[in-house]
Specification:
The structure holds three protein chains of three kinds.
Chain A: E1 4-15, E2 18-29, E3 33-37, H1 44-51, E4 59-64, E5 67-68, H2 74-80, E6 82-85, H3 97-101, E7 110-111, E8 114-115, H4 117-130, H5 146-164, E9 170-174, H6 182-195, E10 200-204, H7 208-214, E11 217-222, E12 225-231, H8 237-245, E13 266-275, E14 279-287, E15 291-295, H9 302-310, E16 317-322, E17 325-327, H10 332-338, E18 340-343, H11 347-351, H12 358-363, E19 371-372, E20 375-376, H13 378-391, H14 408-421, E21 426-430, H15 438-453, E22 457-461, H16 465-471, E23 474-479, E24 482-488, H17 497-504
Parallel strand pairs in A: 3-10, 3-11, 6-9, 9-10, 15-22, 15-23, 18-21, 21-22
Antiparallel strand pairs in A: 1-2, 1-4, 4-5, 7-8, 11-12, 13-14, 13-16, 16-17, 19-20, 23-24
Helix pairs in contact in A: 8-17, 13-14
Chain B: H1 25-43, H2 50-75, H3 83-101, H4 105-125, H5 131-149, E1 154-155, H6 165-168, E2 170-171, E3 174-175, H7 176-194, H8 196-206, H9 208-213, H10 218-244, E4 246-247, H11 255-265, H12 277-297, H13 301-319
Antiparallel strand pairs in B: 1-4, 2-3
Helix pairs in contact in B: 1-12, 2-7, 2-10, 2-11, 2-12, 3-4, 3-5, 3-10, 3-11, 4-5, 4-10, 7-8, 8-10, 11-12, 11-13
Chain C: H1 4-15, H2 19-35, H3 43-69, H4 76-90, H5 104-124, H6 130-149, E1 154-155, H7 160-166, E2 168-169, E3 172-173, H8 174-192, H9 194-204, H10 206-211, H11 216-242, E4 244-245, H12 254-263, H13 275-294, H14 299-317, H15 320-323
Antiparallel strand pairs in C: 1-4, 2-3
Helix pairs in contact in C: 2-13, 3-8, 3-9, 3-11, 3-12, 3-13, 4-5, 4-6, 4-11, 5-6, 5-11, 7-11, 8-9, 9-11, 12-13, 12-14
Classes of the chains: A alpha/beta, B mainly alpha, C mainly alpha.
Chain lengths: ~500, ~325, ~325
């Protein structure tokens, strides 16, 4: 019996235009808690999806209990003894706790053809006590707190794995502690330590302190590659952080050499903007042509600040002024009227009308501008679209092509063109390179750079710290809903990610 | 999962993805039309006579009027099931008002229609009731009001029949009702291509969240769509009452499904965002050809309903954009 | 204010999930008792209401299953039409030589179920939204019913059914007893079988249910079949009550059924509500309309009231989070 219950050797996984995993090798040992850390886009979730059968690796070896694993779907993975609790959870809200746990396995509780509630309750109580959760199995899941829901998910996974009876099952937990309070985190780790005796746990978290304290081993991924593995007792925050984000800048990846000083004119002034429960009062200014990056983990409040500025959610207090003029922003329409634009993170589903063609999508925000009298002037709209297709290098057979038929990258460019067409003065860009392949990323960086040179003020939230530092003139770090620090990122003196990460986590 | 590059299924070519989507539904509709015309003219030589063609045109005009209104709501992704009740209400109101206020009956009835549509729109956009339930309910209410005004059919007495010439008369040898239909078509076409509000309906129908994020006033746009539906139903109601020289509370019932059929068979997708006035014109002609043809060829009136039901299913199956809904309910 | 015994009872009632409905029923009772000077709650009238409610209850119970699933079934009238005509032709009548007596019961249920199967297949195999496919099917079946019956009424000579349906046991109309028995069976099905719970799972979140291993397509088809079965049964009852079968007996059954389902507390968005909700809703609507008739309200104002009730009931029970942007 080898020590490794699971072995991945030289796993490669690519998607169109992206290499998500480059020769990653990793192992999970029996009876251990393994911590998996890495930034967004590092490849953690791709790797886990391979483990549970959602993806198939392009090449490489996947050994389970010494034998090659043939996992064609999550169901087979479960039968083989591997299961995952997703961050979003998969509980059905209108069913009770026990109904969710035993969903599609109810036949175990049949008595004379009908389901026996009492035996379901009994078994549910047994399962719940294993995760130290004391709720009535008859409670509706919709009524549970986020923390309790999390524990029920784990309980469900446990029960399912036990059903299939594999030796030393593997539980993968994706960011389980995000919704837990301190005491609840303690309880969770007590449970996991108990569980360790007969199973292995892969623990994904961005909370490095937690991971170092409570796991046996740590694996670090970065940019789709395996960086390092170390026993947790040999790890310390600084070392892990450094390995996580890399050390410096090279090859002018973000065209930092073209970064110019912004003008003096203040375009956006935010004073004491606050949203109860989401973020504490925050203030900052943005100059013309400046790129400001908001940095923070999930729960830091940066996304919520952008939501308030772009009108997706109303703020509870504070003032926003664009070019000195006060703006009352409660809906996206208000924001746009004030001159603030927002490019959503999911550009395909939130940024385009797929049934409509390239022309129509690009011109959405400027229909009023290109009118003669009460009617639309299609010719000038056409010219506008033509201009942007050329400017942004959009590859399309014609302006009349339905946007549904364009490739992902070109769809993104259409969305960008739409916003550039309009007269917004401040542009909030939500994770500009998410879902974009490597070649297109460079175009985006160049575009953002030229935009700021032309005088557009940009607020950006990026997937990696490196990107944040590289693209911006200035960085505001947020943590747990509050402003932490402002860090300048001048062209000549870009801070190193490893220096910054300490403030972030 | 955050930070994941989204793999686009089957994306190999950089420019064109999913060839199937390029087949415009309008060719499907035109194909059907040609097929039916051919079939019916074989079945009965009188089908293509001038008299019959004019009949087809006249009933098509009514379908066109109510269909153009209905297509506005379907384009936004909703539906208006109250058109039948509204048409009935307008027909009764029209007959009652003509002896009382003469030509003023026309604008009053149209305003009533627009207002009723506006009411539907608000139920949808402000009270947040799904359109098909809201309009199912209001349809019943409209019929009730029609009965309240007059439980029995109201006929047009000889004295006011001249007032009906707006619909029944001819201008330069062309039946007015055809002219009205044509005008409505042109009007709606201009609306959907050259006015902002008309084009906004398409954006909302295609992707309502994106429209909201881009600053469109979705509430107002939906209200306008439903007001237009009320307008169309009102015009159709006036046409119907004029042609039949009477108004009664069940005159419009059959148009609930007929208006939906007109829209759908013409190739407008129920998912919203694709289709429009031209599709509806073709749909109205198809429906009219179908109903006229089936009668002329001798198919049982009720069996016609069966065929119609099947035709609707076929059309939806072809035009429904399944990629828009992750799960089909 | 601190009436402890009262509070306990209130808590128990609200736990059953039909508190609001019972309360409305009470309100209606009071309203019409006052309006009709007590005649509303005479034994005679209560019996009338119960007798009238029987068939709407059965129809509503069939319909609500599909709605809890998260789909829609607008084929009620079409299926009742065709099953009604079928009943007329298979029981002893003047037109056909058939005389199958009580065999009609399983046959009409099977017929309804088969048609329900078509609905389910259109939805799961052809991926057609149930809203439009059942609407189209309703027309198709209605047309076929008219075709078979030649558009005329069929007089049924076998009167055994009529006697059973119009009869009563200790004052309670038989038809209601039949409905109650079906109700009990249905409730058991929904709460104590794997199938029943899976319907709720799909209504709650279809994608998650599928991920968890629920056989969504199969559950959907069976649900449509059960609905069809109930419509077939109600067609049998409708037709034999009057000893006359015609395609139009299905007319005006959809609207009251939808209203009943909504009023009873079954959310249009799915996942919430059971047979008892549908049944209670049908009872409330029947009681409401009976009261309106007694108070001599103009027949077509009744339509307005029903329309209003439908809108309000849906507005109150719908889960807006699920709908996102209302279409």
């Amino acid at each position: 019996m080898s020590e490794n219950i699971l072995e991945l050797n030289n796993i490669v996984k690519t998607f169109p235009g992206v290499i998500a995993l480059k020769n990653v090798s990793m192992s999970v040992r029996r009876n251990e808690i393994l911590g998996l850390v890495g930034e967004n886009g590092a490849g953690k979730s791709t790797l886990m999806k391979i483990l549970i059968g959602l993806y198939q690796p392009d090449s490489g070896e996947f050994l389970l209990r010494g034998e090659p694993a043939m996992l064609k779907d999550p169901d087979s993975a479960m039968r083989a003894g591997i299961g995952m609790v997703f961050q979003e959870g998969c509980m059905i809200p209108n069913l009770t706790v026990m109904e969710n746990i035993f969903l599609s396995h109810e036949e175990n509780f049949r008595k004379y053809g009908l389901l026996s509630r009492s035996s379901m309750v009994r078994e549910a109580n047994k399962v719940l006590s294993a995760v130290k959760l004391h709720v009535d199995p008859n409670t509706l899941v919709a009524e549970l707190s986020a923390a309790d829901k999390q524990m029920v998910e784990i309980a469900r996974l446990l029960w399912l794995l036990r059903q299939y009876g594999q030796e030393n099952p593997i539980l993968i937990l994706d960011e389980p502690t995000t919704v837990l309070l301190r005491e609840e985190v303690q309880t969770l780790f007590e449970i996991l330590t108990e569980l360790k005796k007969s199973a292995s746990i892969v623990f994904i978290s961005h909370r490095l302190e937690e991971v170092i304290e409570n796991t046996d081993r740590i694996v670090i991924l970065k940019d789709g590659e395996f960086v390092k593995e170390m026993p947790s007792h040999e790890a310390d925050m600084a070392r892990v952080e450094g390995l996580l984000v890399g050390h410096g800048f090279s090859d002018d990846r973000y065209h930092e050499s073209d970064q110019n000083e912004p003008a003096d004119e203040i375009m956006l002034e935010v004073k004491d903007l606050v949203h109860e429960g989401q973020f504490a009062p925050i203030s900052f200014t943005l100059r013309r042509g400046e790129v400001l990056s908001l940095v923070g983990l999930i729960g830091s409040g940066k996304e919520e600040v952008c939501r308030c500025l772009s009108g997706l959610a109303p703020a509870d207090g504070g003032t926003v002024a664009v070019q000195g003029k006060r703006a009352f922003i409660r809906t996206p329409k208000d924001a746009i009227r004030a001159g603030i634009g927002y490019i959503p993170v999911d550009r395909r589903s939130d940024g385009l009308a797929l049934d409509l063609n390239v022309e129509e999508n690009i011109n959405l925000l400027v229909l009023k501008k290109y009118q003669t009298g009460p009617f639309s002037n299609l010719k000038s709209e056409h010219q506008n679209a033509k201009f942007w297709v050329k400017e942004n290098n959009i590859k399309t057979p014609s302006l009349r092509t339905r946007t549904a038929n364009l490739s992902g990258g070109n769809q993104q460019k259409v969305v960008l063109s739409k916003w550039l067409s309009s007269s917004v003065k401040v542009l909030i860009v939500d994770h500009p390179t998410r879902g974009i392949d490597v070649g297109a990323k460079d175009e985006i960086y160049r575009r953002l750079r030229s935009l700021s040179d032309e005088g557009m003020s940009i607020i950006v939230m990026c997937d990696t710290l490196e990107e944040d530092i590289g693209l911006s003139h200035r960085m505001i770090i947020m943590k747990d809903g509050a402003f932490v620090r402002e860090v300048p990122c001048p062209r000549s003196e870009k801070p190193r990610p490893v220096d910054i990460i300490g403030y972030v986590v | 999962m955050s930070g994941e590059p989204t793999p686009a299924a089957g994306e190999k070519k950089p420019l064109l993805v999913n060839r199937k989507r390029q087949f415009p539904a309008i060719y499907f509709a035109l194909g059907l039309l040609v097929l039916f015309i051919v079939l019916f003219s074989i079945g009965n030589k009188g089908f293509l006579s001038a008299y019959n063609v004019r009949n087809i045109g006249m009933s098509a005009s009514i379908l066109l009027a109510v269909g153009l209104g209905q297509v506005c709501t379907i384009l936004t992704g909703g539906i208006d099931l109250s058109v039948g009740g509204l048409m009935s209400l307008v027909s009764v109101l029209f007959m009652v008002l003509l002896p009382m206020v003469g030509y003023w009956a026309y604008p009053i009835c149209i305003l009533v229609g627009v207002f009723a549509g506006y009411l539907n729109g608000n139920l949808l956009s402000r009270v947040r009731i799904p359109s098909f339930i809201a309009t199912l309910g209001t349809g019943g209410i409209f019929v009730s009001v029609a009965y309240l005004i007059s439980p029995v059919a109201i006929s047009a007495p000889k004295a006011i029949q001249p007032l009906l010439e707006i619909v029944n008369g001819t201008t330069f040898g062309v039946r007015n009702i055809l002219i009205i239909g044509a005008l409505m078509f042109v009007g709606f076409l201009v609306l959907e291509r050259y006015t902002i509000i008309g084009r906004h309906i398409f954006y909302v129908g295609s992707n309502v969240r994106m429209s909201w994020l881009s600053g469109l006033n979705v509430t107002r746009i939906k209200n306008v769509a439903f007001s237009l539906s009320g307008f169309g139903a009102a015009v159709a109601g006036i046409m119907l009452a004029s042609r039949q020289y009477s108004g009664y509370p069940t005159i419009g019932t059959v148009y609930i499904l007929n208006s939906i059929a007109t829209v759908v068979v013409g190739g407008t997708a129920m998912t919203g965002g694709a289709g429009g006035a031209l599709n509806t014109l073709i749909g109205a002609i198809i429906m009219s050809v179908l109903q006229n043809g089936m009668t002329v060829v001798g198919i049982d009136v009720y069996f016609q309903q069966t065929l119609l039901g099947l035709l609707i299913i076929l059309s939806v199956a072809v035009t429904f954009d399944r990629s828009k809904l992750a799960i089909i309910k | 204010m601190n009436n402890i015994p009262g509070r306990k009872i209130l808590a128990r009632i609200s736990k059953t999930g039909v508190g609001g409905q019972l309360f409305s029923l009470l309100l209606i009772l009071i309203l019409f008792v006052v309006g009709t000077g007590g005649e509303y709650i005479s034994i005679r009238n209560i019996q009338t209401i119960l007798g009238l409610a029987g068939i709407p209850i059965i129809i509503a119970m069939g319909l609500h299953l599909v709605i809890v699933l998260g789909a829609m079934d607008l084929s009620v009238e079409g299926i009742i039409a065709i099953c009604g005509v079928l009943t007329g032709l298979l029981l002893r009548n003047k037109i056909t030589p058939f005389d199958i007596g009580f065999w009609i019961v399983p046959i009409v249920m099977a017929a309804g179920a088969m048609i329900g199967w078509v609905n389910g297949a259109l939805n799961t195999k052809l991926r057609m939204p149930s809203f439009i496919s059942t609407l189209g099917m309703s027309w198709a079946f209605f047309g076929v019913a008219i075709l078979i019956s030649g558009g005329k009424s069929i007089h049924i000579l076998d009167d055994r059914f009529q006697r059973i349906i119009n009869g009563e046991i200790i004052g309670i109309p038989n038809i209601l007893l039949i409905a109650v028995v079906l109700l009990v069976i249905f409730q058991l099905l929904q709460t104590r079988t794997k199938f029943g719970r899976h319907v709720y799972a799909i209504g709650g979140d279809e994608q998650l249910a599928k991920q968890a291993g629920v056989k969504v397509d199969r559950v959907k088809i069976i649900s449509f079949m059960i609905a069809g079965l109930f419509y077939g049964l109600s067609a049998l009852l409708l037709v034999t009550r009057l000893s006359s079968a015609a395609a139009r007996i299905g007319n005006n059954t959809l609207f009251p059924a939808m209203t009943a389902v909504a009023v009873g507390g079954v959310a249009l968005t799915g996942g919430i509500g059971g047979a008892k909700n549908a049944a209670l809703g049908a009872l409330i609507i029947t009681a409401l309309n009976n009261g309106l008739v007694m108070m001599k309200v103009i027949p077509y104002a009744q339509d307005a009231v029903n329309g209003l009730v439908l809108i309000v009931a849906v507005a109150l029970t719908i889960d807006r989070k699920k709908l996102g942007f209302i279409k």
